[in-house]
Specification:
The complex is a heterodimer of chains A (118) and B (181). By secondary structure, chain A is α/β, with parallel strands linked by helices. Helices cover 38% and strands 26% of the residues of chain A. Chain A contains four helices and eight strands. Chain A has helices at 32-44, 62-75, 89-98, 110-117, and strands at residues 2-6, 9-13, 18-22, 26-27, 49-53, 59-60, 81-85, 106-107. In chain A, the strands form two sheets. Chain A has a six-stranded mixed β-sheet. In chain A, a hairpin with a 4-residue loop joins strand 2 and strand 3. With 181 residues, chain B is α+β, with helices and mostly antiparallel strands. Chain B has five helices and six strands. Chain B has helices spanning 16-22, 40-53, 63-83, 117-127, 137-144, and strands at residues 2-6, 29-34, 93-100, 103-110, 146-152, 158-165. Chain B has a six-stranded mixed β-sheet, covered by helices on one side. In chain B, strand 3 (93-100) and strand 4 (103-110) form a beta hairpin. Mean pLDDT of chain B is 81; it is low at 1-26. Classes of the chains: A alpha/beta (118), B alpha+beta (181). Chains A and B meet through helix 2 and helix 3 of A and helix 2, helix 3 and helix 5 of B.
Chain lengths: 118, 181
């Protein structure tokens, strides 16, 4: 397992298929482009399953959500998944508002999410 | 009674007059002005962090509704930061929040070029595709709020106004972004 840090996001390569991204304090219009680039690099490196750790996230806005949709559109045709872990209350507000819980499974912890994807 | 607070970005976010206001019952309006678009988002979120810590609007709304207010303002201010035309003027954005019964009344004044928000919302609705990259922000603002309006108030300023409440979720047009087509 290798942990690296890229911009405001922390990456944990759990396996050759699965990566955990700790979203950090915010995923919004200020860093969504960085998030998309990071995810594209991971997809090109062969990752198909993404666990997004929202435990520390106070801000998820429409642009941030759009970058997650972009990731979903990339990996879903390949049988990949994007799941949410440790969803904070502010993020839950966005998830409920947009009904994106219909697409992104949520798990109480990163470990639960990783186990589900194993 | 009214509290007026002028916040200079990167300076003290808890000026003396606001601290006085925070110690009193929450039936007053908060006014806060911002002039630096580079620090606007951080300053506004710092203000919300402070309000959440001190349960500032707990008499009026739940914490989840306060989070919807934070999201609504974030989306509007992000729109101003990214798209508004302030021409040669120094941006001046004034946030006002007035508590009510299970609701907050909110207004945001700006000195940018006016645009037709309601028309823009119609366009965004019409053009919304499932799971889009962009174009959701104003729709999220609309979904979170009641009585949303944006209008000129004089020759140089505009005002966004809306109400956010604990009781507007029944029948509210919540978004269905994943399957919006």
């Amino acid at each position: 397992m290798q942990a690296t840090s890229a911009m405001s996001f922390s990456i944990d390569h759990h396996s050759k298929d699965t990566v955990v991204i700790q979203v950090g304090k915010a995923l919004d219009f200020r860093n969504a482009a960085e998030f998309k680039t990071l995810c594209q690099d991971e997809v090109q490196a062969g990752r198909r399953n993404f666990v997004l750790d929202f435990s520390e996230t106070g801000i998820l806005d429409s642009t941030g959500l759009g970058s997650i949709f972009s990731l979903y559109r990339q990996v879903s045709p390949m049988g990949g998944q994007v799941v949410f872990a440790a969803v904070s209350r502010p993020v839950q507000v966005v998830v409920q508002l947009t009904r994106t819980y219909k697409v992104f499974r949520q798990y109480p912890t990163v470990l639960d999410a990783r186990n589900a994807l194993s | 009674m009214e509290a007026r607070v002028l916040i200079q970005p990167r300076l003290n976010l808890r000026p003396a007059r606001q601290e006085q206001a925070a110690a009193q019952p929450c039936r007053i309006a908060d006014f806060t002005s911002f002039r630096d678009l580079n620090t606007l988002m951080d300053d506004v979120h710092a203000l919300f962090d402070q309000w959440e810590q001190e349960d500032r609007y707990a008499e009026s709304i739940t914490i989840d509704t306060l989070m919807r207010l934070r999201l609504s303002l974030h989306e509007w201010l992000a729109n101003l930061v990214q798209h508004a035309d302030f021409a040669a003027a120094t941006p001046e954005i004034t946030l006002s929040i007035t508590p009510g019964e299970q609701k907050l009344h909110c207004s945001v004044q700006d000195n940018a070029a006016f645009f037709d928000l309601i028309g823009e919302l119609g366009t965004r609705h019409d053009e919304l595709t499932p799971m889009p990259d962009r174009g959701m922000g104003l729709l999220m603002l609309q979904a979170c709020t009641d009585h949303l309006a944006y209008y000129p108030i004089d020759g140089a300023r505009n005002q966004l106004s809306f109400t956010i409440s604990d009781t507007d979720d029944a029948g509210d047009p919540w978004l269905n972004i994943p399957f919006s087509s």
